[in-house]
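Q: Given only this backbone (347 positions), what sequence would you predict?
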């Protein structure tokens, strides 16, 4: 449907004089279908975000006119989900590029402030056991607390042309480490490592490694592919299986780990700003990292609201990540634990 659009003075959009709020995109004026097609989410989801973030987006001002939290959120969602340059989405909403940029920054910062509320490992015994039971029901691998992998998100070249951000494909990127459960809910997300850092190094430089080595190791383990080294808390597949138990273990490991592939595909399908096939994030590494984290938070909130975009279709817009194998870890305790797992559950 047609929506009246007027581009406003960008200097008055976010911070004008007084307390009057400008509502450029009123939810009640458009249909759910329009909201989903333009901003990626229905009215109820946007209403929830307004309630969640409204206090952070309505900061006191001495000026008279400012963009409402509702419009700021719609502007940011439009950018996250379209992957379009901010100018194009700003034209859709009826605000200037400068104001659009401030909206994205404000909403991103407000979401990141709440990261621990939406992305975290369960700590209660009952919740941990449910997590392990759900993973066991996938393919029979016991003791699993999550599946872990890394995803590259392309960014513009930093001003300093720092080669540490150039990944194995010759693109500037951030290498982000994610952990998810069987439903694709993210239990961990770190998004600030340069693209040249290998997946295994990203893991061992992360707070996730410290968490498992100090606290969660006794509860179970993560599953990872062969880009990572075997650890007592990190079970990887055998590179050259040679027996029936080893083949069965590898098949069960692959079936369980596939939940991460689907989760990464869901992130890129919903948040096109993370899809390097359309455009790179035109921000500094620090701001790009925050945008990635904001999208991860929104992914979890969407799942909480029953908005699941998992698809078995071909990976539209998905970068094909290059898997790099390792020589098997010589960690004797980790090797012993995996062998015990093979004999106990896959013989």
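A: Predicted residues:
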């Amino acid at each position: 449907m047609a929506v009246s659009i007027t581009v406003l003075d960008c200097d008055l959009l976010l911070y004008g004089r007084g307390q009057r709020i400008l509502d450029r995109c009123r939810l009640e004026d458009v249909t759910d279908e329009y909201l989903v097609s333009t901003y990626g989410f229905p009215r109820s989801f946007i209403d929830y975000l307004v309630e969640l973030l409204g206090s952070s987006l309505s900061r006191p001002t001495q000026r008279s006119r400012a963009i409402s939290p509702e419009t700021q959120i719609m502007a940011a969602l439009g950018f996250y989900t379209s992957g379009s340059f901010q100018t194009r989405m700003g034209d859709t909403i009826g605000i200037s590029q400068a104001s659009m940029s401030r909206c994205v920054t404000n909403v991103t910062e407000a979401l990141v402030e709440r990261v621990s509320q939406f992305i975290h490992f369960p700590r209660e015994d009952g919740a941990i056991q449910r997590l392990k039971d759900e993973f066991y029901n996938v393919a029979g691998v016991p003791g699993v607390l999550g599946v872990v992998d890394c995803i590259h998100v392309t960014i513009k070249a930093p001003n300093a042309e720092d080669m540490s951000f150039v990944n194995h494909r010759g693109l500037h990127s951030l290498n982000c480490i994610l952990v998810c459960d069987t439903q694709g809910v993210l239990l961990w997300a770190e998004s600030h490592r340069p693209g040249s850092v290998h997946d295994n190094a990203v893991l061992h430089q992360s707070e996730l490694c410290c968490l498992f080595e100090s606290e969660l190791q006794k509860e179970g383990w993560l599953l990872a592919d062969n880009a990572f080294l075997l650890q007592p808390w990190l079970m990887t597949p055998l590179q050259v299986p040679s027996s029936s138990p080893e083949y069965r273990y590898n098949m069960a490991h692959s079936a369980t780990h596939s939940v991460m592939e689907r989760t990464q595909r869901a992130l890129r399908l919903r948040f096109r700003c993370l899809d390097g096939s359309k455009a790179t994030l035109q921000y500094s590494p620090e701001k790009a990292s925050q945008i990635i984290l904001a999208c991860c938070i929104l992914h979890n909130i969407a799942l909480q609201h029953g908005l699941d975009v998992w698809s078995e279709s071909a990976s539209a817009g998905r970068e094909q990540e290059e898997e790099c194998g390792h020589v098997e870890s010589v960690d004797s305790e980790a090797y012993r634990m995996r062998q015990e797992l093979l004999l106990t559950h896959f013989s």
